[in-house]
Structures are given as C-alpha cells and as structure tokens.
Write the structure tokens for this entry.
Amino acid sequence: MAEHTVKAFDEDIGRLRGLISQMGGLAEEAIDGAMRSLQRGDLDLAQEVRAADKQIDAIESEVERLVVRIIALRAPMANDLREVVAALKIAAVVERIGDYAKNIAKRVPLIEGEHRIEPISIIQAMARMAAEMVHDVLDAFAARDAKAAIEICERDNALDDFYDAIFRTLVTHMVENPKTISEVAHLLFVAKNLERIGDHATNVAEMVYFAATGTQMAEREKGE
C-alpha cells in the first residue's frame, strides 16, 4: 500500500474513532441530563435532552457514511476491518443508548412533583453505574483494550442486581402508598431503561473484545 494511501487510511480511522467518542460523550451527557431533570422535576432540561438526541442520530449517519467510504476506498484487512465493522455496530448501539436516555426524559413531565418519592435517589445511583459502564467501554474501544472489555461485562451483573433491588423497593413502596402508583410505574420504566443501557454497554464490550482479539468473548452466565 502506497505511503499516501496508508496515511489517508490512518486519517479515516482516526476520524472514525473520534466520531464514536463524540457519540459516546453525548450519550453520557444525555443520561446525566435525563436523570438530573428527573431528580429536579426540570421540564426544560428534559426537553433539552430529548432535542439533543437528534445530534446523536446525525453522528451515527456520519459514521455509516465514513465506514462505507473506508471499505470502498481502502479495502481494510484483518485487524483493521474488524475495527471498522465494530465501529459501525457500536455506533448503532450508542444511538440506542441515547434513545433510552431520551425515553427517561420523556417520563419527567408525567411524574408529579408534589409526590416526589425517596426511590428516585436510589435510581440515581443506578444511573451513575450505567453511565460509568458506557464511559469505560468507549475508552476500551479507543484503546482496543480486551481486558477492560471483559471487566465491563462482569459489572453488568451488579447492575442487574441493582435493578432487581430497585424493582422490589418500588413495588413495595407502591403497595404501601397507593397514591403513588402512577409515579412509581414511571420510575419502574426509568429503572428498566437504565438496565437496558447496561446491557447495551455490555454488547459494546463484546464488540471491543472481538475487534481487539479476533475471537468471541466466552459466554457469561447471568449472576456469575
């Protein structure tokens, strides 16, 4: 491959990594903004999160175009091809993570401020855990760090346990406080979205592992 072609390919790969990093940063901001708007009952912030999701969608489309360009013009092989394909798949997953954050923001106007309940603070802790998984898995992609990808997958079990505990807490609260049934139902939806964000971070970790090693990560048993 000619030197100028190699340089152009490296520039394309650098651009691709940058777009994935940008998408990830926006997804993290969306999770944080959605949860802050929930905590405060801030309808304006919730609307900002919903509107900002379009930017994530736009970057995903840019990633798709760049991947097609790289494959058509550079014909990457082996390790390089795995990274390009992984980036395309990861962009789609990060877009879904942004959608989950947007869905949380959509619930904010439906939760009455006059009946704010304690379980909201518990969900905040779960959100921090999910957001950290998203942040760390995108760092692992940038570094092609297979070991970090494995560690992130292992953390998903802790997030699932967190979800189960929150589910029990919210159902108990709903039974003991019937007037909060509507609010609690929305909070259950929020917790489920956070659990799905963790699942998607795990999916990205598996892609990172494959891109870095060329082999599939061993299947994990839930709770192990």
Summary: The two ends are 46 Å apart (CA to CA). The mean pLDDT is 90. Helices lie at 3-40, 43-74, 78-107, 119-143, 146-176, 181-213.
